[in-house]
Amino acid sequence: MAPERENQETLSNLLREDRRFEPPVDLAAAANVTAEAYEEANRDRLAFWERAAERLTWAKRWDTTLDWQPPFAKWFVNGKLNVAYNCVDRHVEAGNGDKVAYYWEGEPEGDSRTITYADLQKEVSRAANALTELGVGKGDRVAIYMPMIPELPVSLLACARIGAIHSVVFGGFSATALKSRIDDADAKLVITADGGFRRGAPSALKPTVDEAVKDCPSVEHVLVVRRTGQEVDQTDKDVWWHDVVDRQSEEHIPEAHDAEAPLYILYTSGTTGKPKGILHTTGGYLTQSAWTHHAVFDLKPETDIYWCTADIGWVTGHSYIVYGPLANGATSIIYEGTPDTPHRGRFWEIIQKYRVTILYTAPTAIRTFMKWGDDIPAKFDLSSLRVLGSVGEPINPEAYVWYREHIGGSRTPVVDTWWQTETGAIMISPLPGVTAGKPGAAMKPLPGIVADVVDDQAQSVPNGGGGFLVVREPWPSMLRTIWGDDQRYIDTYWSRFKGFYFPGDGAKKDEDGDLWLLGRVDDVMLVSGHNISTTEVESALVSHPKVAEAAVVGATDPLTTQAIVSFVILRGAVDEGEDIAKELRDHVAKTLGPIAKPRQILIVPELPKTRSGKIMRRLLRDVAENRSIGDVTTLADSAVMNLIAAKLPSAA
Ligand code: 6R9
Q1: Which controlled-vocabulary keywords does the entry list (predicted)?
Q2: Is the ipTM of this complex over 0.95?
Q3: What is the DSSP letter of 443?
């Protein structure tokens, strides 16, 4: 654990960046959202969100836009709507039934499906009828543990349609992690598959579900999709999707649900304690996920082909593969596999094949592509791309510039979108037709969002200062509570700064007042009286041509309180005898100043990451401080920590 920092002053503001990228003229001229949106929202924030809500189809209009009993919000009070109707049926009714909703690419090459809005309407209706037959009703919880196959978004929408609350659990989590999430929500049904494809081979899911469910009294049925054809053990709770769903009527009349009816729970691991079940509701969530998708990606549903590479088990997949894009009538790609199967150009091949125009991915993927080399994307035609997005971690300036140049052909704006499971939708981001982008900056709160950077006394910091990110006013897609634990909701998010939402991230304002995200405050280091962000030191390391990826932690140090320890993946082989550690330490000192010079540089083959690609610095801190390694259940690949430990002489 990092030492207590009760009197945390502001974050040191070390990194300088002068590159600017103006929006392309033609994109700006035809942009969905212009600079006026900021003024409109400043004049009347609630009226702004009302207009965003009017983009949806309501069965009954709300009578109060916001009922705010801090920290509990209700949006669009007494309004009624059906999320699945908004995402599917209304497009069919408008004559767009033949429009493609999803181009689905399986991991095995050649395994693909095209799903129109009319197809989706039939599949979702059948699945909704099946859930009803299995005894699932309004307010019941359904746990979903599936690979990235079409039945996954269909399951989400079927739950939304009947008012059941879905809880998607990443297909990579262990039986213990799955069981604790099923128990916390008292799920009545689990939807899963025999397995999925990973790196060219079938990988089983069902045995994990069997293991998890054997002591879950709340679970009445397990609905199983046959995907890989693997042998599965049958239990008396199991029913096959093809037996139960396929024979249902393809008609289902959607009932309108209350704007505040729960839509889903999604667990975030957090750094400590039991996972938090983040609860999202219906009207506000769909309003903001749809509006931000329209604004931040400048989505033109008639012509764009949009691809978000996230897993649907992550909030990014919920809001920007399923709900936002479908509410907007978009055509999207869903890809089942990994970027390196069967070869390292798979992403670029998919973009070329479908003429993808908008790509939304994560810094961890971008850094991996940089490491693999510029020659791989250069072999493909990526000229269809017009907007690039990034999410999940701060994007290092070098990664931003590489992404823009090698993927975006130096034409496309890059939108760095800051948000969280808890915020439900994008909060801070450039607008591609408005903002002159700065590599590494998330820039400004979106219209209708009131965010700021404050010091530990909750005072707004001046331009040039750093501190804590806060959100000062409620927003439509905010979490409503932590499932079953209002007190934990209050303590976690609303107690650190009275009256403000505290997301747990550090941030700085540059001289223009633009925002830079600096990572979780738990990761901020205290070195000789300076608060230094791990993000800035990592970005400095990544700006060295020999470095592919870097993770930085503060380890207890008798002289300086904490000392900076860096874990670095190199871009290629390094000559014997070369003092790479010295070279990198000097590079950081030159880029950021001597205060940020790492005490230690450890060259490692991999970094520990979550399934959504976030570096788990907590585990690296354990290594740097010679402790036994903590909870690894949310790690994408648990073998990584052994690889790292094997590289260490003696860390401290
Ligand atoms: C959407 C998502 C949330 C945390 C968040 C922050 C980090 C996400 C970021 C970013 C800097 C960005 N984060 N996007 N940091 N710049 N563009 O990632 O949700 O998995 O809940 O993570 O991710 O630290 O607090 P979630």
Answers
A1: Acetylation, ATP-binding, Ligase, Magnesium, Metal-binding, Nucleotide-binding
A2: yes
A3: B
